[in-house]
Write a structure and sequence with these properties.
homodimer; about 70% helix; about 220 residues; globular; mainly alpha; DNA-binding
DNA sequence: CTAGAATTCAAACGGTCGTTTTAATGAAAC
DNA sequence: GTTTCATTAAAACGACCGTTTGAATTCTAG
């Protein structure tokens, strides 16, 4: 890949993560990359094309790694379902590990990816979601097998909750969230996983509830 | 409050929830509201002023309700810590219940609020976060009391994970997330809470983990 | 060394942005 | 009925947007 292309992608990662997609202009991008304005459209066709290429560069390898690790676990356990804890590790481990590997985007891309889960722009959302169809086809059945007591719908929703916790953690990695007032130091990736994985495993495996009382209303 | 002001706020809620803040222009807003372009700057000073007013209108009452419910629970249990399940209900119940009350923003504002947690724009993020400082001062100690086995840092992080799952659920309410391919029907608020609350309670109460093995790496 | 393709460059395109200005309108107070 | 003041209206401001153009430059093959 040409040097100019790389420089644009790197600058885009940084600026998109910092400011979001819409408010970041192609002029700001090319200036930060130190290349000519027209180079962006020459190499990527459009701003959307750049965003597409940006996600493809990182998400392809990332999701392939997740699928490879899932293969490993499934062949390790044969006919038996893979323990939930292993599935969670395989699912949330690779994206969080991005943070400590600058060659795969580092903390910057992790933050960007965390935010992308709740991206309002329709074009961007479609580009992003498009990278996850294979992943869903493998992980949803895997979780369903390992959470046999739950209905299909319950499995879906719990995966949904897991994705939310993961995305929020990725988006706000480094500085911990709104509620702590900065009294909480950021963690290494391994420490973070040691905190997140048990939370998710317990949530996924929790007993189903019945709607037995009013919730949250006076 | 003047009729024009209301109409602008309502239109803004709808369009911001649909498209995000940056891509929604004040012209589009005032056109949708059926008012003159200049009315927006007359009543709100600027686009940022509108966003500020928009959050204040809904988040003030919402967070007051949460604090009131927390008061109730704390006086109910006296010196004893409030059970985690009750705290979770008080924390995630009111925002999810917005969805079924059009007078308080309905599903539209809930979606907008869910997205606001990972808003990249610095101005908007500051406006949004500013609404939560009181809430944090009450809920963080309450959770810490009820999760006595955990260190302060662990409590922070688990609240962080909870907020993530909640925000993601709010942002994508109605249509369930990326991984299910639309095979999962949306739920009523009560059904949703019956799914989410046990997940969060189990996660919050999960035993702490030790970093005993490599996680997610080959 | 030269022909041709690939890339970079400066400049400009039409449009839309948030905001401001100035004038017209409406309702209430005297 | 006139004055006053809050609101609405239409038009324009300068700035910035994503994209395109066409020439200059660099690279590569023969």
């Amino acid at each position: 890949m040409s040097d100019t292309k790389q420089k644009i992608l790197d600058a885009a990662e940084e600026l998109f993560a910092q400011q979001g997609f819409a408010p970041t202009s192609v002029r700001q991008l090319t200036a930060a990359a130190g290349v000519n304005l027209a180079a962006l459209h020459y190499h990527f066709g459009s701003k959307d094309g750049l965003i597409q290429a940006l996600f493809a560069r990182r998400l392809g390898p990332l999701n392939q790694e997740r699928l490879r690790l899932l293969d490993e676990q499934e062949s390790r356990f044969g006919a038996a379902p893979v323990p939930v804890q292993e599935l969670v590790k395989v699912f949330v481990g690779p994206p969080l590990r991005l943070a400590s590997d600058p060659n795969r985007g580092g903390e910057v891309f992790m933050r960007l990816m965390g935010r992308a889960f709740s991206e309002p722009d329709q074009h961007v959302a479609k580009i992003f979601v498009g990278q996850f169809s294979q992943l869903a086809r493998r992980f949803v059945p895997a979780f369903a097998r390992s959470l046999r007591k739950l209905s299909e719908e319950e499995v879906y929703w719990r995966i949904h909750f897991m994705v939310g916790a993961m995305a929020h953690t990725m988006a706000h990695a480094g500085r911990i969230g709104l509620l702590t007032g900065g009294r909480c130091a950021p963690k290494s990736v391994d420490e973070l996983l040691a905190l997140l994985v048990p939370f998710l495993v317990a949530g996924l495996q929790s007993p189903r509830a019945s709607i037995q009382e009013e919730v949250g209303a006076p």
